Each structure stands twice: as structure tokens, then as C-alpha cells.
């Protein structure tokens, strides 16, 4: 059986196994990144024209592209609708970017930690993944400069606002600093912003692409975290030099994004109704975060350190006494608790032991305390086993 | 600007330009492959559960996978629901297959002519495209054996039922012959069946994958030609050795196919309502085909040869006096007529001059005669210019 070389790089199914195990109703899961079921808005379809059933344009629905460009301009991103490509969820942006840039051995630059599925698809295409350490307010700029001086990465991939997994939001100074370095070295920025709207303090965080003077860029977002993930509607906005290539790669990937989802997204984007929904969503998730923080203090204050997330869906724990958290999974699942080990979020997992990513949005609050209590016990047992 | 090597292989946008030009309302277009607008069924959404808005499984909706497996078994394809992967239109199957098999220089085997977008994506990934000539009843089996004796292609890609562009339907004997050769040489079959249900004579055409004894296979279909292309819901069914890889590649491409489209497809597949709709669709397209055939006789009988298509959406014309039909495009569009030149459907276009693909499903019958008359005049002028 002769598969492509890339198939040998398809990652083991650890994550799939965790998420599959977490489906069992008795499992208290902190593993996924699912929006809360109760907060999925009720949507109407009765007014959708029959023509949405026909083939559409690879670029996406013209009215939706206009609406997305207007929203991006309001954030400070200088763009026209002609730079907007509707994609089948922002995961597809990563696939298109990988195709645009990555040959076997191509160097790219990532934050450490970074979004697991991005790491996986970049590695699938054969990228050599360099990384920059993430601090509480964004990447270490000294290290970033050093990487850029020593390497010519094809692009840098960043999630500056409520990063998955670390929940870090870059400061204004770090945003400016990153933009200046990318302009200086002429390195393309891929800025991934799924969590921007899920902010609990409303503080400003203008996109980095809006601060660039020279470097090429791709900005990507989605309606999955604000409206309905099941629609699979995301978008990218690209500098004009990149757009035509991305469009042709999109066409060859799946012709175009489903039009029913695009039509539904258009009913919401830029409307008062969406602003109201987002406001409810933030209140709801802020409440869940606060409950989670209290329970964490009860069960993990001796075991781990963490920052209070100001947005997004995750707590990122750093164990005071590090161990490979992947070794805790089996015991956790045996106790009907699921979590996401931190190691796979790093390009070099074995040198980054001792983090846990815990989702706070999806767990039933009635089971939260019991879940964290059991997880803390699993961690303690693991540490005792390691010390023995 | 350092893009991947594959970007240099992104094809020129000839086809995009044709289709864009064909959008002008005054253009009589035979270029696309669009279902007739009038035949898009009215669909209902009122009963869709809110949960369809949540993230779903990469495999697809369980009930839809069951329904698709049952349909495939009824066609003779031996499979379980566990072998069914719901994809974002069957175009995505080609993307996943390319990722699974193709490194730069990997040999693959295609019919000549073959589906243009398949050729493009396989070449994008760097495939070396070998081809087998297509006869009126399927591929030349002597040539197929010769290719298999001289090469070790990673797979063969075939569209055995109402092929795009040639409208060829393989005979039973050719289907058996192809299956026997693939088993003998152990070559994987990718069988693409978008047009199977659009049959005008109802003759049998059991899938080739159902005749295989040993070879691995991927069978792919879509609801785009039977229900609504705008849903972007297709599927693949794979032999168990291939399925886990395809699933992981699907997950990295776009997590999962949109669930609203999947839910809608499930409301139709296997129902009396879909059978009634397909029956109407066949009658409608058969009528359009007959009208097209009559108009072709009026305007093209001295210029070209063709077979009457027994299904699908296209007539495939072979000019009696060959010329590069790409050179006719400009004049055709200047006369407000669009068509698809045949050359790009071949891996070696310059050695396969003189075919035209004409779509008969989408043109307004009131403009058909005028359109073909103008197109015939463009061909005559081109031939006169060439002779001069």
C-alpha cells in the first residue's frame, strides 16, 4: 500500500479518543471546546430563497462578504469585500494556508503553546515548526526577534485574543511590537481570531494585521463561537497579493462553502439581534468562568497555577510539580473525568510537560465541583506515583 | 514571496473566466454544469432540531451514514455505515484522496478525457497523470492493461456512469474487465458517481467497486445533482483499510461537514419523496436533452460527431475538422455564447484538440437554438481562419 509521505505524519488519534470517551453521558468533560448547548440561538429558515440551493461562487455570497468586510473595517482592519473569502469554518483557512506555503521542510513560526489542530495540519504538510514562548501578555519579543534573525519562516501563526489553549490576550504593546518585527523582516502573519467576541472585560484588542505596514497577512474568523458551529461558516480576509491564490485553493478544496449556512450567518452579522445575543453569551460564559474559578480554588490551589481568563473558553493550568499529563488520561477517564493534556499543544511536547487545558463553557455546573475534585485526585495520585 | 512549490502548479483561471463571463444575463451559456433552477426542490427547515447548530462528528451524522450505506448496499456496494464519511461535496473526496496518495511525482491513472477539477487538484499535489483512452463503452482495456504492466499508479480515478465531460457510461463487460484488472494488479479504485441517478433509459450500471475482490477502493457521490448543490453535502465510502486515514484528513481539512445540510439531506435520502423528485428530474432533463439533440442536428451535423447521452448533463462534441477550441472562446463570448473547450479535460491538452463540452440542462430552451446557431458560426469562422 503506497500512501503519500504525509500520511506517515498523520498524528495518532489521542485527541479523538479523548473526545470520543468524553461523549459517554456519565463523563464530566473539560476536554472539548464546545459552546454551551443552552446558548445556541434559535434560528429561522422560512425566508431563505430557493436559490440558496444552487451552486454558488467560490468567493462566498457577495452580501456576506460585504458584511464581513464592514465588520473587519470597524475593528481597524483595512479591507474591501474583494479580500474576503468565505470558508467552511476557520479550520479550512489553516488547510488553505498550509497548501499555499508549506512544502516538506518549510520553516514556519508558531506560539508555544498553540492551537493543536493548526499544529497538526502544518505538520501534516511537512512544516518544520519553530516556536516562540508565550508570556502572560503575548510572545517574548526578544525571542521572536532572535527567531526572525536566524530563520526565514514562510509565515507566523498567532492567536492573539484569548488564545486556545492558554487564554492569553496580547497587550497593546506586544501587538505593536509583533507588527513592527513582522514588517521589519517581511514575514507573513496569519492571525486567527475565533474567540475575539467572547470577552468578559470588553478591553480593547485591535487586530495585529491592522498595525502592519508592509507584511502580507491573512486574518481569519468564524461564526462557530458566536452563532452556530454546525453551520461551518468561517471567513478569511487576505492582503491582495495572497487572495487570488487562496481563492483557487478554496475552489479546488470544496468548490464553495455551503450557502444555507452563509445565508443564515448573513441574517445575524452586524445586526442588533447578534449584539444582544453576544451580550447574553458573554454574561453566561462569565458566570461559568467565575464558577469554575471558585471550584479551581477549592481543588487545585495547591496543585497548579493559572491566570483568570478574560475571554474564550479555557483555563490553562500549570502544575507546580510537573509531570506528563498524558499519563493521567487513563486514570481520569476511569474516574469519568475528561481533560485535555497540555503537551500536544507544543511543537516539542516532551519538553513541555505539566499543563492542562480545561474547558469551562460546556460542563453542567451541578457536576463541576465533583469533576474537578476527581481530577485533582487523579493528579495527586499521578504525582505520588511519579515520586515513588 | 516564498510560496509552496504546489502554488506554481495552480492552473490558470481560464475556466473561472469562462464561468464568470457566462454570468452576464445576455450570455447563452453551455459552459457550466448547473442543475436547472426550476428543478431545485422546495425544502422545509421547520423541524430541524436546534442541536444541529452544535459541533458534530467528523464522520458525519450517524443517521445519514446509515442511510447512505443502505442506499449503497442496494446498488451492490458491500459496506457498513462505519465506512461512510460525509464530505463537503464530493469535490472534497478528491482533496482527501490527493492528500492520502499524492507526493510530487506520484503516478496516478485517469481516463482521457476526465473531470477537469479532478485533474487540477491531482496536478496541484504534484501527480504525474497517466491516462487511458476512453471509448464509447468505457476505457480501452488493452491500453489499461499496458499501463498497469508498465507502471505502479497509486490509484485509478474513474467516472463510469455518464462521465463528465464525455457522457460515456461503461458497459457491463467493461466494468467487469476494469475490476478484474485492478484486482490483478492491486491498484486502488476511486469511483466518482455524481450523475448515476440522472439516467434517461434506466439501464443497469452496477458500481465497479462492487465487483472488486481484492483491490482497495473509494466510492464517492453527492446530493448536488439530485437535491441541492448549495447544501455542499457529499459522501465517500471506502474500503476499511483506507477509512481511518481519510477520516483524519477530513478532520484536519474542516472538522466536519455542515450539519444543517446533512440534516436536510437525511430528510430525503431513501424516501418516496426523493424517488418522485428524481423521476421528475429525469423527465425534465430527458426533455432538455431531446431538444438539445434536435438543435444540434440543425446546426452541428456537418461540423461535429457526438453520441446521444443516456444520462448526466453534457453533450461531448468531436469536431470533424479539429482545431484548438480554446481559440474559439473569445469570439464565442463576443457573440454572447459560452461553452467549455475540450482540451483542458485531458492531461495532455495540446495533443487532444477539437472537442467541446456542452451543458444541456441549464440553458433556457427559448434561447437554445440561437445559442447553438451562433456557436456553430464561431466554429466555422475558426475553421476558415485556420484553413486560410
Automatic annotation (TrEMBL), chains A, B:
Does the keyword field hold Electron transport? Answer: no
So which domain of life are we looking at? Answer: Bacteria
This protein's cofactor list reads: pyridoxal 5'-phosphate
Q: Which GO terms describe its biological process?
A: alpha-amino acid metabolic process
Keyword Transferase recorded? yes
Q: Which CDD domains does the record cross-reference, listed alphabetically?
A: AAT_like
Q: InterPro entries of this UniProt entry?
A: Aminotransferase_I/II_large, Class-I_PLP-dep_aminotransf, PyrdxlP-dep_Trfase, PyrdxlP-dep_Trfase_major, PyrdxlP-dep_Trfase_small
Picking any one GO molecular function of the record gives: transaminase activity
Q: Which SUPFAM superfamilies match?
A: PLP-dependent transferases
Q: Which Pfam families match?
A: Aminotran_1_2
Instruction: List the keywords (alphabetical).
Output: Aminotransferase, Pyridoxal phosphate, Transferase
Question: What range(s) does the Aminotransferase class I/classII large domain occupy?
Answer: 49-375
Question: What's the subunit arrangement here?
Answer: Homodimer.
**Similarity comment text for this entry:** Belongs to the class-I pyridoxal-phosphate-dependent aminotransferase family.
Name the UniProt record assigns to this protein: PLP-dependent aminotransferase family protein
Species of provenance: Pseudomonas kielensis
